[in-house]
Here is the input.
Amino acid sequence: MEKRTERRSPRVIVPAPDRVRRIGRTGFGWLDGGLLREGWLEVLSTEELAIYAFLCLVADRQGVSWYRRQRIGDTLGIPEAEAHAALKRLCELDLLAYTPFRLGAPDGFHQVLSLPASGPPSLMEQFGQFVAQPAGR
Here is the structure.
């Protein structure tokens, strides 16, 4: 008879039980654990990740934020052009959806989406998209 070894989960010790996070009156912000487990952190730039986290924190219960690009950039210390490029890439990666306030408006509603079932693009896909981009992306 084969002896079975049991794997036990480590006993978790909560260092500050009086400070356990709870959703409260301050908002709905949260980050999907799939960002780490599915490999999204490896494909996002520092600016993209900062903006994504910011939008998660300021979004309403549907994941929608109406912060303007300039304000997002100013809050995070990111120049507006870089903030715009990061927002555009987050939309291309299907992590955000965007609708302008009105036709032709540079700012609008950003919605943090559920993570795509397809997962993050591979390094080869990213390289192919980079090579296909015109200079000055």
Remarks:
- Residues 41 and 49 are 8 Å apart (CA to CA).
